Amino acid sequence: PSLRREGFSSIPNVKWDDVGGLTELKNKIVRGFIQNIKSPEVYEEYDVKSQTGFLMYGPLGCGKTLMAKAIAIESGANFIHIKGPELLNKFVGESEKAVRTIFINARTCKPCIIFFDKIDALTSKRGKDSGSVCVLNQLLGELNGSDEMCGVYVIGATNRVDVIDEAILRPGRLGKVVYVSLPNAEERVSILKTLARKKPIAADVDFDTIGRSEACNHFSGADLAELMNEAASIAIHNKLLAASDDNTNQESLPINASYFEQALQTI
Ligand code: ATP
Q: How many Å from the N-terminal Cα to the C-terminal Cα in the chain?
């Protein structure tokens, strides 16, 4: 996106209930971060320093972006979604300006969450290349302006916590680091049920069995979403075939167990 458009807020459409599994993380985050955004005056009354942000790390497709969007909705905050690599501009100085603009925009629509996806692109250990050093310094500078930061919150996400510069992780910056893991069997069941909520599912589909099955071992949330979409695509295909064939019963064709079996073969 052009730098002029960089940093504009939006209201995401991911609700808390759209995030399956991750129960412990959700509880932890509800207690700390969301309460903080919703009731900063209570934190002030008890002289507890506001939490400015946190960093989520973990494997691809496990719900970090989903979680950040759901936090915005749940806390009633505006949301600015920044993809780290897109911000790194080859023209010297442009990326720092973009970081500044993002924070200026965030301050105009408080409370506001700035979500830095793939934040490692901006904050990898210093000394590697001068472009990212400048961006990191700009980011640290913005996070340090604690009065101005009031009402502005920062969530970072990365798959590469090992390359993140520790300076960004100090208290008052992205002090907390939370791990978003691959879902276990029980969480896979919960994610499948979450993903299925708005879909027509046949009575013979047993998500408890599918989620716990060997075939879904090591599946991420994104893999489970792909499984769900693949099974739905088979149902759609069959429905359209039935519709084009006058002799066929054109009742609704929900997504049944055999479609999930077929979908599992292809994923
Ligand atoms: P990356 O590290 O690649 O940026 P991520 O951890 O941010 O990935 P998301 O973008 O949040 O992952 O997830 C990708 C998709 O996978 C989501 O849009 C959703 O369809 C599905 N998904 C992942 N985790 C969950 C979950 N816990 N509950 C429901 N759906 C999920």
A: 32
